[in-house]
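Subgroup meeting minutes
Present: P.N., E.W., G.H.
Scribe: E.W.

1. P.N. recapped why we're keeping a running log of single-chain structure predictions: easier to compare across weeks, and new members can see raw inputs and outputs side by side.
2. G.H. added today's entry (236 aa).
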Amino acid sequence: MGMFSRLSDIINSNINAMLDGAENPEKIARLMIQEMEDTLVEVRTAAARAMADKKEMEREVAHYTNIRDDWENKAGLAIDKGREDLARGALIAKQKADVEIVRRQEAMDLAEEAFEKRQDDLGRLQAKLDEAKAKHRSLMMRREAAEQSIRVRTQTYDTRVDDALARYAGVERKVDELEAYADTIRGSEPSLEAEFAALEQDDAIELELEAMKKARAKSSAKAASKAAKATEKKED
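Output recorded in log:
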């Protein structure tokens, strides 16, 4: 593909449409940028060549202008000296110089037109290149953001995290069991009211026990007294 065909394709291209339809838009964007930069170099070279051609034509126009003026002066001198034959020859040479001047001027105009066209192409190509680079940067930023999001989500949902949470749940259950066991132990311990009730019960039992001991002692004394009296009667 020639430079000018590529240039036309690039300038008339719809970068967004090309990238939206590509399987790998970031890669396509890089290739487009490389193609544009290569074409930009070629267009700059063509513009520089056109400017060099124009300057060369300017020098040749000046050269043939000097030749023409010289033959014109010689023709005038020949006329002054009465040498019309020499004057005719000088005028013929002058006409040839005029023809060369016209040719160089036409070539110079073409070089100027080519230079201006290349300058216009450079401006439009540079705009397309800037557009492609901006699109490429946007694609890179989107890719990096997506990769970062994937890394974050992968780390968040890593099986190691699930394992750690499972272990934490196990520890939490163990703590619940320990707390329940502590509550059970606490429930079997006598409360303050129960301890006081026990003291009161102990006092009542002690009083009842003391009363029973006294009653039994009294009964034993009576029985002993009866037995003693019975013994005395037998002896009498």
